[in-house]
Amino acid sequence: xxxxxxxxxxxxxxxxxxxxxxxxxxxxxxxxxxxxxxxxxxxxxxxxxxxxxxxxxxxxxxxxxxxxxxxxxxxxxxxxxxxxxxxxxxxxxxxxxxxxxxxxxxxxxxxxxxxxxxxxxxxxxxxxxxxxxxxxxxxxxxxxxxxxxxxxxxxxxxxxxxxxxxxxxxxxxxxxxxxxxxxxxxxxxxxxxxxxxxxxxxxxxxxxxxxxxxxxxxxxxxxxxxxxxxxxxxxxxxxxxxxxxxxxxxxxxxxxxxxxxxxxxxxxxxxxxxxxxxxxxxxxxxxxxxxxxx
Amino acid sequence: xxxxxxxxxxxxxxxxxxxxxxxxxxxxxxxxxxxxxxxxxxxxxxxxxxxxxxxxxxxxxxxxxxxxxxxxxxxxxxxxxxxxxxxxxxxxxxxxxxxxxxxxxxxxxxxxxxxxxxxxxxxxxxxxxxxxxxxxxxxxxxxxxxxxxxxxxxxxxxxxxxxxxxxxxxxxxxxxxxxxxxxxxxxxxxxxxxxxxxxxxxxxxxxxxxxxxxxxxxxxxxxxxxxxxxxxxxxxxxxxxxxxxxxxxxxxxxxxxxxxxxxxxxxxxxxxxxxxxxxxxxxxxxxxxxxxxxxxxxxxxxxxxxxxxxxx
Amino acid sequence: xxxxxxxxxxxxxxxxxxxxxxxxxxxxxxxxxxxxxxxxxxxxxxxxxxxxxxxxxxxxxxxxxxxxxxxxxxxxxxxxxxxxxxxxxxxxxxxxxxxxxxxxxxxxxxxxxxxxxxxxxxxxxxxxxxxxxxxxxxxxxxxxxxxxxxxxxxxxxxxxxxxxxxxxxxxxxxxxxxxxxxxxxxxxxxxxxxxxxxxxxxxxxxxxxxxxxxxxxxxxxxxxxxxxxxxxxxxxxxxxxxxxxxxxxxxxxxxxxxxxxxxxxxxxxx
Lengths: 294, 312, 270
Fold this sequence. Notes:
The structure holds three protein chains of three kinds. Chain A has 13 helices and no strands. Chain A is mostly helical. In chain B, α3 runs parallel beside α6 and α9 packs antiparallel against α12. The N and C termini of chain B lie far apart (54 Å). At the A-B interface, α2, α4, α5, α6 and α7 of A face α2, α3, α4, α5 and α6 of B.
């Protein structure tokens, strides 16, 4: 150890001496690389959005939105696919919302006193969210298409409901967890039981968040194709009954994308535009709601 | 004195007698438990149905299904090797791109290169990548990505590539799983205490020395969890892959040749499958995919969980 | 007890004070918010200087300006001048990694890296390209930090398995491994129990002859026990911290010049 005065000149020199070239190069190089990687990721996003917007809007018109598919050559549309998507997704929502919201409430509100079960359920929900959508379709095929002897809106709705479940459960749980714990104590302290507390105080307070979860689920379900191909299949006609094959936007994009006819291709872009707009709106809305409310 | 006893009596009566509340609570709790268990039992139900339907195929082909490339519904010969290979190959290509790029993004979003007001929209945009429907990626892949990649693939493969290939599918997949790697890794890196980073800087480390020697090692299990989760997505992703992979049941000798994945097989053939053994073999292929993704998701869950336990 | 400490302090100051830091009319800004103003002080080398003051008075900020770690967290700016052994450390030519190698830092909560004890100590030396003789360095550093006997059999186990007090001593050792001239300590005992605190204080007194130690503490007894010099910071109604008084610990605690110092030390505010 040298004394302070002795190492004074040495220090002046050393402190201003630049980083060794190797370390300096590594540091700057990695910074540049991470910037490039981030830009790389944003290129496909903007490219997808741009192409969908341009090609979609240029082929969107009222005929396309309101009429049935026509034999190639004449002017047709995919009104029935919009109708079908709405019906299938509504079915899916009707099945998944009660189970999903109740499950979310359970995970959030009973995590302190039903610890073990909550852990297991949460684990299961996370695993369920990782099941490929095509497998969910295969499952729905086994459960509904085979017994009903054919594809139907029921089977499609059932498959989409399973895909929506984890989203609704998680968002509900998150929304409820954002409500301060003291609010529950305050309600219990006034003599309310837990059911009253949850139903009258907690759930209303978290309502926007829960709705957001449902909307995110709807957006996801509306864009899902794989499980619909062989559960709801497709149809050239207006919806007649939920136990009949039903058209949907997602399957329509799939079958039109590989079509040889350019008007069908442009209809695929138009249908994509509708789905992308739905997804974008819901996701942005969800962000706004979660940020403002909580 | 008597008043007090009266009050005591009333209080004890009221406190003991009013059990209605507790019953309501118990019923409510029971309903919640049933709903929660119902959600999770979907997994078991799914496993039972898919396994049950594939039984005829399992008894007929057994493990040989995994080693046979011959898939011919007309002669009732079903071997899944081409699909298993294609599934693994595309997922591998996807991970090779998505892991480094995703980690780069995660680091970029946690460091202070740009102010928070700029980083937040960027991370939102990265997450948006995950929200775009798979079939839209497929459409974009056919009309935008393949024309861009085709010359490159033709150059690399000696002119034979059509652009519909394992490689194209892998690249498209990597875009789709990128948000999974990036946003979970970002959360993991953000949860590492700031003082750890400062301690390294205070010892004279540069920013990137700190990232590589302290931050990434500290976040390893969470980052591995993110990658495993992304792998699960890549293996099971269907529509986009089906639309660009070329759907040819073969084991290609080049990544720029067309292939087939299990998910694409299911999407293409389930609708038109006739004959018990064909359908059952499709279920068998589905069961394989289901089992692998289930295993992978359980693993990822364990890794990610370990992170949250460490942080407590 | 108090008397003995005082004698020791006087002896140290009698030997003539060599300045480690010279701070001249320094003001510190977080973004546009001023956090410190008008700080001028000399900090002597080979001595322990404590910084005391009520919470929010900017004592941690001051400490973080001495190794320029504050700018790793947010945008900051300083006016005035801080020099280390005569070198202005805010000179644009100053290489931050080299500055921080010369100025070690120990944080409020023990924060060993999630790696082995050995790797924690070897972390700094490895950054600067040291590969040989690491074993000896690790051993001598751990001995310097009075931790060797406790950990010599588990060098290759995770540092997170140590107790809080051991972790904090490991963090001190980690800083010592790169042979710094200055050791900054930001309330190093605030997360520790009294016995662990005592061991850290013993360690500081042992290290006192070898390097400059600057410690921020909210514990006035601690400042009185271990430090030779004391700086008292406080804040005015505009929430800008300033230095009220500095000098020998004995003087500050027995006969403060400023009323505010006296009030704080006697517990009337803060």
